[in-house]
Structures
1.
Amino acid sequence: MFAPLDTMNLILRPLSLALTLFVSISCSSNEDEYQYSEGPFEIITLTRDQGLGYCPEEGDALSASIMRQNNEWMMQSAVAVVAPSGTDPSECLDPAAATCLQREVQPALTLTAEQAESLQDAVASVPAKECNADDNIVCDPCIVVSVEIDGSSANGQCCGDLNENFSQGFDELVRLIDGLAN
């Protein structure tokens, strides 16, 4: 008589624990309080990972790596593209989405001097992240965008108040990388 309820508890308890762990990790007020290096960087990496869902948009860089090689800046990336019609939903980045997107590796790119300078300027414009976490907020990001520059890593998530200058600088840097990847 109580088996269905016991079964539900077995299913929901691990999910509840995982959600609590995810929220407590994502909402820590001490995470990502850093500042990117102000000098020229050697390597920058962008990733878009799933949160409690996965909602990339067409043209988003799912991953990108830009590194200096012999006084040139080389970029390797993969972007979200619309899948051919008839693609099995299980092959989509988000099988439940209305539009089926797939990961497509882009050809390697050598940045022009102007592109490299724009990227350096964008990196320099990202101030230290300050997240004033609010323990009463439950965060449910569908996607987590992270950028690592020479070992300093940050993401744009904050379960509370995030300083506006960081948000603007971080978003500009991500848009620039998205543009280069396409």
2.
Amino acid sequence: MIYTLMDANKVTMDAIANELISTPENLAFLNNVNGSLIELMVEKLNFGQKTVIFYDHNKRHVTFTAVKTMYSESKFLKYQILSISHNRMTAIYTLFSRWSQNGNNKRNAKNPFKCKAFMEYTKEMPIYNADYILFMA
């Protein structure tokens, strides 16, 4: 599976919804979020709160949780290091849980950082370049 790092200032809501629906773990990676619609939607949310994208052309909606990882915006980290570190850890554990639920955790590893197969899997993703990771709820 090829994952796309989408530019939050150029991507459409339909494209985000399609990415969330089409990936095996139901996730999307966004960067360049400063001033974007996504930033406005999730700025005041805590992890676990949900945001809805209305998916107009099929009259459906997609509900997602946003995790602020801010990998491309490292200049801001000195002010928010604890919350961003927590968010990054939460994103990895959430991804590991979904990866395991899809039957990929053959050795029943408990820790994503000690699971070689999972760490290899994350190398295929733009996870360490994303400012936000969206997980479909």
3.
Amino acid sequence: MEDAIKELASAILKTQNNIDWTAIISAVCSVISLVTIVILLIERIERKRPYLQATFELVKSNLVCIVIRNTGEVTAKLKEICFSENFVKQLPKNGQYNAQDNDHLNISIHPNQKWVLYLGVITPEVMHYEDKRLEITLKYSKYNHKKLYSETETINFEDYNKFLVYISEVDELKEEIKKLTKGVNDITKELKKVSKIENNTQTQNYGTIENSSFSAVVTSHNGEGEVSSKSGEKIEGKSNV
């Protein structure tokens, strides 16, 4: 047994002595470098293409909208868009019109650009739909290229049911400004009405030498040119002759 082990160890030593470890290490390094170069080329090619995404976003706090955004580095040409029929048939007429399937599109979407599609409903209405899953398929190409890319996004509105709709301080300020503006406009209208009455009203004081008090008569002119008079209370005063 010991002799067999010694013979095996001697054979391994002889094999190692015949191997050029320097050449093997060099070959392995060359393969690793080649793989790295291939990966970098693939990543570069992937970056130089458009990426379209379809997301659900709220506009003005509760309008249900689908936003199509290009997150790639080059311009995309949107060729086709499809919506799941079961969800679309629950929408109102204007929403169904906006969410029609279309395979004859030619819309340019530049990097970081987005287009917003309104589905014609608000979030409380969608949450009462029987089918709350909307599937959107986008087919697009790189600008001036024929190769088509396809992206499919499934939006389940039930998943958003418990999320908070945050209204920023800026939006709150806008709402307060709107209220103040409406109040100022109402006050301005009332002041204009009062101004018209004052412009058409004259007050005349009169008295006699014998009396030490004066009387007032308010004369107003209506829109038809008629004159009406109203006697006022007596005002105590002295008359210097």
